[in-house]
Amino acid sequence: MVERLLAFKEEQNCIFLRGNHEQMLLDSSIPDVAKMWLKNGGKETLASYNTTLKEMDLPETHLKFYKNTRMYYDTPDYFFVHAGLSPNKTIAESLKSREDVARFLWERSHLNNLDTSWEKPIVFGHTPQPQPIRKPQMFGIDTGCVYNKLGYGKLTAMTLTEEKIIQQFCLDN
Fold it and tell me: For 45-81, b where at least 16 C-beta lie within 10 A, e where not — what string?
C-alpha cells in the first residue's frame, strides 16, 4: 500500500496523516509500544515486509514515508486529524500543547459530545462506527472497512463542500 501511495503522490498533491498504527511502528523500539503494536496489526505489517521486530528491515522510502506523515492538516474551512481533539479546547489551544497534539492519534472523548469548542469542523477516523458521524463541527468517516461484521465493512469518504458520503463495501467480504 505504501508503494501505491508513493506512486499516487507523484501524480497528485497529497497530504498523508499519521495514525496511531504508524506511530506505534515508529516507536516500536520501545518494548511496551512494540507489544501493543504487534497485537494491533504489527505482526501482519512485519510479515508484509518479510522482516521481524528485531531486524525491522523496512525500505528506506517507506520509513521516510511514515516519518513524514503529518499529525494534522489545517485548512481555512476544516481541520483533519486521525482520531480527534478534546471537545473542551479550541483547535488553537490544542495546537499549543505537545501532549494534546500527541493525543490527535488516540482521542475519543469528542464522540459523545454535541457541543465542542472548535472553531471549524473536524474530519477524523480512528473509531469505527456503523455509519459516518455527522454532528455540528464533526465528521467521522471510519466505518470499519477491515471488520467483517454486521453494520461495518465499508470504506467511507466524503466530499466536503457538498457533505456527500461515498462508500465502498470491503472487497474482501
Answer: bbeeeeeeeeeeebeeebeebbeeeebbeeeeeebbb
Q: What is the pLDDT of residues 44-100, one digit of tens each?
A: 999 999 999 999 999 999 999 999 999 999 999 999 999 999 999 999 999 999 999
What letter represents residue 81's amino acid?
A: V
Mean pLDDT of all residues in 97-111: 97
- Would 21 be classed as within a structural domain? yes
pLDDT at 151: 82
| Within-domain flag for 65 | yes
Cβ distance 131 to 150 under 8 Å? no
Indicate whether 60 belongs to any domain: yes
Q: And the C-alpha cell for 66?
A: 511514515
Total of domains in the chain:
1
pLDDT for 3 beyond 70: yes
Percent of the chain scoring above 70 in pLDDT: 99
User: Minimal CA–CA distance to 130: which of 169, 81, 86, 84?
Assistant: 169
Q: Are 76 and 119 spatial neighbours (Cβ–Cβ below 8 Å)?
A: no
Alpha-carbon distance of 12 to 152, in angstroms, equals 30
Task: Name the amino acid, one letter, at 30.
Answer: I
Distance CA 25, CA 53 (A): 10
Domain assignment of residue 36, given as a range? 1-70
